[in-house]
Amino acid sequence: MKSLKDLEAIREKAKQMTGIREGKAQTKIIVGMGTCGIAAGARDTMKVILDELGKRNLTDVTVTQTGCLGLCEQEPIVEVEIPDQPRIIYGKVSAERARQIIANHIVNGNMIGEWVIGRK
């Protein structure tokens, strides 16, 4: 950091990241972070989701975490909730799958059917 402008850029980026994690956005992404999910790689999945949203400047998406969903063999589990659409639950979401979910489902509205393990 060399100037006030650099400090302002850091502040703005921090505000955007806070909005991604805590905002009152319409679209929601929920990552299963129970011990089974963490053991299966949910931390990496969460990190990639946050990174992809940041790279795409998608501040209207809320990302949260939840505990075990009881489907340990399907971890890491990611739920996507878009208004006026059924909640989609994806299983075995690796970092690469997380990138594709952001690109296809969140950005383009195209659910990836072969990874879906449930709908609510």
Task: Tell me about this structure.
There is one protein chain. The protein has 120 residues and is α+β, with helices and mostly antiparallel strands. The chain has 4 helices and 5 strands; from the N terminus they run αβααβββαβ. The chain is globular. The chain has a single domain (4-119), classed as Glutaredoxin (3-Layer(aba) Sandwich). A 5-stranded mixed beta sheet has the order 2-1-3-4-5. β3 and β4 form a beta hairpin.
How widely separated are the two ends?
A: 47 Å
The CATH superfamily title: Glutaredoxin
| Rg result | 15 Å
CATH C-level label: Alpha Beta
Assigned CATH architecture: 3-Layer(aba) Sandwich
Contiguous helical run count:
4
Indicate the structural class: alpha+beta
Q: How would you sum up the major sheet? A: 5 strands, mixed
* CATH fold field value: Glutaredoxin
pLDDT averaged residue by residue:
89
Going across the biggest sheet, name each strand in turn.
2-1-3-4-5
General shape: globular
Helix content: 40-55%
H-E string = HEHHEEEHE
The count of β-strands is: 5
Residue share in β-strands:
15-25%
Low-confidence stretches: none
Summary keywords:
120 residues; alpha+beta; Glutaredoxin; five-stranded mixed sheet; 4 helices
How are the elements arranged and paired?
Layout: H1 4-22, E1 27-32, H2 35-40, H3 42-55, E2 61-66, E3 78-81, E4 88-90, H4 95-107, E5 116-119
Parallel strand pairs: 1-2
Antiparallel strand pairs: 1-3, 3-4, 4-5
Helix pairs in contact: 3-4
